[in-house]
Amino acid sequence: MSSDEKQVAPRSLAEALRAKDDGSLAALLRARPDLITPVPTDLTQLATRAGTRASVIRALERLDRFTLQTAEALAVAPEPADRETLLALLAGDENDPAVVGAFPHALAALREQALVWGPDDRLRLVRTARELLAPSPQHPSPTGLGPTVAEATAGMSPGRIQEILTAAGLPTTHDAVSAVASLTALFTDRARMADLLAAAPPDSLDVLSRLVWGPPYGQVTAEPAARLRWLLDRGLLLPTAPGTVVLPREVALHLRAGRAHRNTEPLPPAVEPAATHRPQVVDTTAAGQAYTSLATIEELLKDWDEGGPTVLRAGGLSVRDLKRTAVALDLSEPVAAFWVELAYAAGLLASDGEADERYAATPAYDEWLELPAAGRWTRLATAWLSGTRTAGVIGGRDTKERTLAALGPGLDRSAAPEVRHRVLTLLAALPEGASASPDSVVARLHWERALRGAASSDDLRARLARWTLSEAESLGITGRGALSAHGRALIGAESSAPAPETDSGAEQASGPGDKLPVHHHRHHPAPPPQPRSPAELASAAARAGKLLAPLLPEPLDHVLLQADLTAVAPGPLQRPLADTLDVLADVESKGGATVYRFTPGSVRRALDAGRSASDLHAFLSEHSRTPVPQPLTYLIDDVARRHGHLRIGSASAYVRCDDDALLNEIIADKRSQGLRLRRLAPTVLAAQADPATLLEGLRSMGFAPAAESAEGDVLITRAHAHRTPPRTAPEPVPDGPPSPDTTLLGAAIRAIRAGDLASTTPHKPTAAAPGRNGTLPRTTSAETLATMQAAVLTGDTLWIGYVNAEGSASQRVIAPIKVEGGFVTAYDHTADEVRTYPLHRVTGVAELADEQA
Asked: How far apart are CA 505 and CA 317, in angstroms?
């Protein structure tokens, strides 16, 4: 290739983007979706947007540690830097082979995200990134390096610089610029620097060793000690302010053997297995916990069936109500908060919107109950995996120091779905049946998002990772800390072989919904995770449900009745049996088997619900594997015989009974005084209490009254299921703009290319538009019409200025097809489609210049 054919180095990021193909632009927009919202008009605007502070910070936050270290090294390298210089800053004098292997892909990742541009011999970091990463007194660099010799001596007198040259054994120069260059050359020459430091006093070398890895600044007195004076005289320490000195960058790099970082981390830390179990044990343990999670949600919403706790004025559940719920579920408060939040995230729980607003189950809960057990579990698991509400922050404080309440505002953490999926993906990369050490998972996440991960283990991503491990175990996605088979299916990794832990890049490439890909290079950096479509989520959930279903226990159709008025359910019960038994008996204990106890109150509850004694006997005989004990038969008959013997209606309230001796007993009982009863007739007592109070009062005295209607019929009381109006599940809060799909990317790139063509294509100067200079072309109406008509005949492409109905001006490149009726129909290269424009809105027109050879 001749020199004329060689590609000219780009002079700006816009020119570098202009040289990229469509595939590279698509990769940039996919990695940084904020650049496409809204779609830039041309590549210059895209480059400007890519250099804004907010966008650059967001891009830096998504870099892994080594790629970020590469950017930090480029920020302290001379600008522009060549590839070899940058690699030397990372690999050091020993040329670390791991760094050498990882470097090409780290640099490629920075290029792909438009953080670095230029050819290999003129690499440049975008200006905003350099400002963020370069060392300064106000913002120290993670490298711990200080300013260069040229920067540190910028305010120094020329005479003082010459004195430093003399003390360092260098010849003096005629100006300060050449003196600084001579001193810089000395500090960057390894051999001469070694000779200079060999003559240094040991105490002076000790001073340098304390500053070499940063911070590079130190304090000195007005009369420095001899060890400091020796360094100051030779420029190995340079003054920056009265009483402050700094170690020049070139000196520090020599002492560091060329490394910009104390610990360069080209490879991610391995996720360490904590224990290994048989996969079958993991799957059955996870399945058991999955079934427990369904029972917990059902018990929670059954407890709130007639209307749950009230909604706080600021939204959410009060601390008292959360404690009461935790006691009812026999769980700790944080765990109870997790289940409450999960039911809300799945759309099974919401506020009813009434004047006295309360929480209650939604109509979707009734639909959920009709699903098979595996289907109910996948509904919960997918809601947890994709939701942004984070139960772990409940009890903490928001930015205004207000306590964060369960079901309240402020619980969304947009990073939660990504962290959850990533933690499960790391577990999927381990051998089957292996659990992971939480600390190693946190360390891995810190490496993958170095700028987001703080040095302490208390940052949000670390807490999210630890919560994920705990919540996944509670939900039955993992068993004994290891990912189950249905858990692998849920994240789309069920058919993947475990990846080696050192093979970081491709493993990171698996975003939510991506199967673990084949690893082509062990150092390939991770692109941002791609969200799964609803169809992909549904498909993964269906596969997980199919794997889980055979592991779940089959509901039983029987119980074991015992002589002590208890019934033992040795496993989960079929829903009709469980519902009836919940009315007929009280739950005494839970666990692998549930123990129910029959009491007079529970039997009366069943009779109140419309069951007769014969119905109850038949029900128990049908569903008991053991003979019905005689004490239970007696209990039912005794309660049924007395049930309804007393009748209560509304006068204010009255008691009616054919047995006047029984009414005499009631009036004589001191406990009835609060009811203020009086006899109206031998078989009727009147009360000033309301019927419900009277009913409850007589029951507390040991009687079994029944309520009756105005017609004298016994009122049957059934449990009233309070439901909210239809509610949708809370929408997750996205972590930035969504990643564009292929169709949007293609359309956006065509629009950007066309807009760039309109803004950069040269045109022929006219008297009315001598040059573009960033302004719209201006021609008269007659000139515009004539030029348009001529272009229709010749097929030429024109550059026009156009003002739309809203008054927004733009420039376009069009190929006119026909001109008639005050309109021009043309193929618009900017929009990549045929459009019709009113001629009166065209500000001017110019012919495009001929292509240059």
From this structure: 43
Give me 246's structure tokens: 């700094």
Look up residue 111 and give its amino acid.
Answer: R
Report phi then psi at 232, rounded to 5: -65, -40
User: What type of residue is 219?
Assistant: Q
pLDDT for the residue 519: 36
| Mean pLDDT estimate for the chain | 84
Query: How many whole angstroms separate alpha carbon 427 and alpha carbon 525?
Result: 19
* Residue 148 neighbours by CB under 8 Å, 6+ apart: 184, 248, 249, 250
The DSSP annotation for 531-565 comes to PPPHHHHHHHHHHHHHHHGGGSPPPBS-BEEETTT
Distances (CA, A) of 723 to 370, 557, 727: 16, 28, 10
Distance, CA of 70 to CA of 2 (rounded, Å): 34
| Token couple for 78 | 């001379």
Q: Tell me the Ramachandran region of residue 679: left when phi exceeds 0, alpha when psi lies from -120 to 50, beta otherwise.
A: beta
Cα separation of the two ends of the chain: 17
Strand 706-707, strand 647-649: pairing: parallel
Helices and strands (H, E) in the chain, number of each type: 34, 25
The Cα–Cα gap between 552 and 549 comes to 6
Which pair of structure tokens corresponds to residue 204? 């002076």
Report how far Cα 580 is from the mean position of its chain's Cα atoms: 43
C-alpha distances out from residue 212 to 127, 249, 258, 261, Å: 27, 9, 12, 11
10 Å Cβ neighbour count for 728? 9
Residue 249 · residue 72 · CB < 8 Å: no
**Which uninterrupted H or E stretch holds 808?**
none
pLDDT for residue 499 is more than 50: no
Those residues whose C-beta lies under 8 Å from the C-beta of residue 618, and which sit 6 or more positions away, are none
Sequence-ordered list of residues with C-beta below 8 angstroms from that of 697, at least 6 positions apart, any chain? 671, 672, 674, 675, 689
> What are the phi and psi torsion angles at 358 (to 5°)?
-135, 160
Residues 786-817 have pLDDT tens digits of 888 888 888 888 888 888 888 888 778 888 88
Coil, strand or helix at 86: helix
For the stretch 52-75, pLDDT in tens is 999 999 999 999 999 999 999 999
Query: Can you give the length of the chain in residues?
Result: 853
Measured distance CA(405)–CA(411) in Å, rounded: 8
Rg (CA), the chain: 39
Q: What is the 3-state secondary structure (H, E, C) of 183-224?
A: HHHHHCCHHHHHHHHHCCCHHHHHHHHHHCCCCCEEECCCCC
The rounded distance, in Å, linking the Cα atoms of 339 and 273 is 28
Confidence of residue 523 (pLDDT cuts 50, 70, 90): very low
pLDDT digits (tens, 9 = 90+) for 310-343: 999 888 999 999 999 999 888 999 999 999 999 9
